[in-house]
Amino acid sequence: MSKTFTRAEVAKHNTEDSLWCIIDHRVYDLTDFLDAHPGGSVVLAQVAGQDVTTDFYNLHRQEVIDKYRSQLCIGTIEGETPEILSPEPGSLSPVPYAEPLWLRPEFKSPYFSESHRRLQRAMREFTDRYVTPEAQEKERDGTYISQELIDKMAEANVLAMRLGPGKHLHGRTLLGGVVDGKEFDYLHDMIVAQEMVRSNARGFQDGNMAGMVISLTAVQHWLRNAPLRDQVTEEVLSGRKKMCLAITEAFAGSDVAGLKTTATKTPDGKHYIVNGTKKWITNGMFADYFVTGCRTEKGFSVLLIPRGEGVETKQIKTSYSTAAATAFVQFENVKVPVENLLGEEHKGFIVIMSNFNHERFMMVCAVIRMCMTVTEECMKWCNQRIVFGKKLIEQPVMRQKLARMISLCESNQAWLESIAYQMCNMTYAQQAAHLGGPIGLLKSHSTRCAQEIADHATNIFGGRGITQTGMGKVIEMFHRTYKFDAILGGTEEILADLGVRQAMKKFPKAVL
Ligand code: HEM
């Protein structure tokens, strides 16, 4: 790679027998790549011997050249040095507004300590090195997360951190010891969630143990049989077993009262017999345990159901990748020991409701971070793309769009950090009592904003914004999938309504 060439030398290699070109001051020999190029050989023949930097970056993302450099690059241009940055694993983006304010060197924040910063750095590197490459591959081919990655996350205790703060973290070495398990709070939790979504693969993001995140917390808090709880927790956090939450049915989604799956006690009182179906169950395809909402004689109860006789799963294809392992689940006369009951019999609503807070908080962390990435992509594109002889950024209409996108991201992230801080200072029960409304409102609001951001971003990227490869692939993915966050864990309307209803419960009688 230390070889240098003059531009005149490169220009001579302008035939299909010897085809060179220049990208960012580096010389590439594309002769043997002609037939393999996904964009075909004709485009390459048209630019043979030339500096194609602008054309290349109009069509490809930086990671394309990073991937092929070692194979195709033969040297640099004499007296010139490459200018375009290839992000190192773990690095922060230098693009304005690409990172949350607390990560920008010139700003301060009252919320974050050194351990938050250490965790952020370690999580960013972990995601860049291990999660993103697999996420991109699985998102494309629709297969499920590998056991290798699960093992890696289990070993570094990333799986354990994703449950949020709690005793399950005490005594564990978190990502090599960057934070003490006893100090781990909801701001750490937010960091883990926000860093993981930077792998930019919405289906895989859910396929990556999202089912565990929203179900094991309920087991932790509500399964009263301690040996069983410890056994299951250990199995899941070590990555040997997978767990999912099975509440939603084709008959009832956010309206939990309308569920039709039944759990009937056997005459000896030792078991429940479960019958019914569940739909849109994230990770259901590979789950070993289903935390399942059932109708019982006098109400609603939640059971931990292991995969076994009478449990069947079928894949559902949704708008995002099948990497999420979304399933239709059928329970047919499934015998479940009564010790597998979460909370009290007939009082399962509280189990579900209190669990919803963390689930929705996680979703909000993710969607807001994703909006920020989309805004970053648009900032970069507007700065690069030349239309009618001008950069896009020089068009006032584009600056208006960016201003709106930035404002939505900044305000949502600030609201989120404030809620995370409240969570750090409340017990689980206080959170359930006081934060259901605010988290619901923030989720509803942030996904409405996501819709607007997806819309602006697609218009900015044009045809690229509706294409699954090339420069607009992140935009295309976001525009196709932002609705998941608007629906999973409670629709926008239901959550907005919850926010106002919870506020009205506390409305003082004496105020007119
Ligand atoms: C080192 C040189 C190059 C490499 C490694 C490369 C690689 C690729 C890859 C992997 C794709 C698939 C789409 C994607 O994943 O982004 C692609 C598509 C394409 N490439 Fe290249 N390419 C190179 C140079 C060029 C040049 C110089 C041109 C034209 C000036 C070009 C034109 C195209 C076109 C038109 C497409 C299809 C557009 C699309 O899928 O969005 N490529 N290239």
What does this structure look like?
The protein has 512 residues and is α+β, with helices and mostly antiparallel strands. The chain has helices at 7-12, 42-46, 53-59, 62-72, 114-141, 147-155, 158-161, 186-196, 202-207, 210-222, 226-237, 348-384, 396-424, 428-434, 436-461, 473-487, 492-505; strands at 4-5, 14-15, 18-23, 26-29, 73-77, 173-174, 179-180, 243-246, 262-265, 271-281, 289-296, 299-306, 311-315, 327-337, 341-342, 386-387, 390-391. A hairpin with a 2-residue loop joins strand 2 (14-15) and strand 3. It is elongated. Residues 21, 28, 30, 37-39, 43-44, 47, 52, 55-56, 59-61, 64-65, 68, 72, 467, 469-470 line the site of protoporphyrin IX containing FE. Protoporphyrin IX containing FE binds at residues 21, 28, 30, 37-39, 43-44, 47, 52, 55-56, 59-61, 64-65, 68, 72, 467, 469-470. It holds the Pfam family Acyl-CoA_dh_1.
In brief, what are we looking at here?
The protein has 512 residues and is an alpha+beta fold. 47% of the residues lie in helices and 16% in strands.
